[in-house]
Each structure stands twice: as structure tokens, then as C-alpha cells.
Amino acid sequence: MSQTPWTNEPSGSRPEEQGYQQPTYGEQGYQQPTYGPPQYGYGAAPSQMGYSTQSVDADKASQLSLIFGILGIVVLPIVFGPLAIWQANKSERLGKPATAGKVLGWIGTIMAIVAVLFIGVIVIAAIAGSTGY
Asked: Rounded CA gap, 94 and 58, in Å?
């Protein structure tokens, strides 16, 4: 009987019976695929790793927008507020939303306008009060 007692395979269906032999040491049988960036130097340039210069510029503009927006609230709203809005618009043109930077920029700009108007009213009131009328 040509069948082994523990399998139901017909005779001649196994690879060993069909003349298949594994490659010996040193022969090239199956080669493993290589994945990832090259293993030398600093790797590939950003454009080769899937990052376009446009997406890098958009990321940079959105980060600057947020930084300028925070500085516009805390330090100098008359300077950093409009810069935050400008960077947010640039980022959105390049395809990345920068809502937080734009909102903080507008808040800073409005705070600066209100502060300038308030100081202007105080100066006018001080001048009118000192003339003696």
C-alpha cells in the first residue's frame, strides 16, 4: 500500500514524492524582501519619504501661526496678531488647516485695536480735562 496510514492523501501528492528538493546551502532559493529606507547615510530626502515640500511648508506655517497667535495674546498683540493671521492663511492655501492660530491671531488683533481705542479715548479725555473748559 502506498498511502501512509495517518493521511488521506493519494500517493504522489506530497512534494517529496514529486521530486521536489529544498535548495542546499549557498543556493539562492527565496530571497526576503527588504523594507524601509536605505541602511546607509542619513536616509532619503523628505521628498523621497513621502513628504512634499508643500506639506513641510504647510506644517511650518501652521506651527508659526499658533506660536504667533499665542504671542499675540500674551506679549504684543499689535505685531503678532496679524502675523498669526497671515501664517494661518498661508497654511490653509497650502492645504493644512490652522484654525487655532487664526482664531488667536484675530483675538490678539481685536485686543490691540480695543487697547489703541481705549488709550485714544483716555488721551482725548485728559486733554479736554486739562484745558479748563
From this structure: 5
Dihedral, CA of residue 93, residue 94, residue 100 and residue 101, to nearest 10: -80
For the record, the C-alpha cell of 27 comes out as 543556493
0.70 exceeded by pTM: no
Q: Alpha helices, DSSP H only, in the chain?
A: 53-74, 77-93, 99-130
For the chain (133 residues), the mean pLDDT of every run of 10, in chain order, is 58 57 62 62 58 89 95 94 95 93 96 96 90 66
Q: Cell numbers of 54, please? A: 508643500
From the list 78, 79, 105, 77, the residue with the least C-alpha distance to 91 is 105
Coil vs helix vs strand at 67:
helix
